[in-house]
Amino acid sequence: RHGCPVTAALTYALYHKVADLSIEQVLYLEANVAVHCAANPDFKEGVRALLIDKDKDPQWSRSLADCVSVEGQAYIDKHFANPYPKGEHPLEDWLGEEALGSQYVR
Q1: Enoyl-CoA hydratase/isomerase domain location, by residue (predicted)?
Q2: Domain coordinates of the chain in residue numbers?
Q3: pLDDT tens-place string over residues 28-84
Q4: Taking the CB of residue 28, how many other CB atoms lie within 10 A of it?
Q5: Do the Cβ atoms of 45 and 38 come closer than 8 Å?
Q6: Distance between CA 104 and CA 93 in Å, rounded?
């Protein structure tokens, strides 16, 4: 019951996506996920519930059941997309497009 359902679904998806990736590729994906999560309203809601109001009763935007639906999986997968304009990802020069291929780099 504790924690954001989107975060749980993202953790599960990331765990399964990274099995065959290099550490550089994993860090690249985690950077993408972190940017998307920080922009997600659930992040603000979690901070409110735990640190500001301290009611420990966050109202998450999605349930875990929503996250595992077809629509929910599409929503989760969007978190892996590069959130930066082409050529501006902070790890792009370090990694290069050829390391990840077109699946994770736009």
Answers
A1: 2-69
A2: 5-94
A3: 899 999 999 999 999 999 999 999 999 999 999 999 999 999 999 999 999 999 999
A4: 24
A5: no
A6: 15
